């Protein structure tokens, strides 16, 4: 976009920042909400977001994108995939297989705290436990402030002074794991069987 259009986008973003209702609408609905473009709750009523690329970029800059809004939220564990080879008879009549693999789990030494046994994490000295810090950015409208994830505690709000010797402060480690999988009769090549709770632990 041209300089004039970019300025209008910045001005619109600035107006929204100063309006609590508009900012709340943006947090919930994105740029459509900030501009009154959302419908009756059933969707965006034909809203075309392609024209607001620059507007979205501006808000990502101000707010640090969606990633920094709730840094203390736990991260879901990753899914794992394991391939099992079957004999013809096993595929036809079904069988049970024991699968061995490694996965991320809470550290057995510190129980996931990341701190050396006998010690505890302390409140982060940089963000004072909030998990976020303020960052000032120079814009055509002047200095703008946004929140980003704290680079010391990485959003946890806690600082580890004496790391666990096993996990080195991460709170998790690779552990061997095994699970019995029932293969149904008539299973086909490439068919997937999903086992809940058998992937990597969330943190």
From TrEMBL:
GO terms for molecular function: heat shock protein binding; unfolded protein binding; zinc ion binding. GO terms for biological process: DNA replication; protein refolding. Coiled coil: none annotated. Keywords: Chaperone, Cytoplasm, DNA replication, Metal-binding, Repeat, Stress response, Zinc, Zinc-finger. One of its GO terms (cellular component) is cytoplasm. Belongs to the DnaJ family. This is Chaperone protein DnaJ.
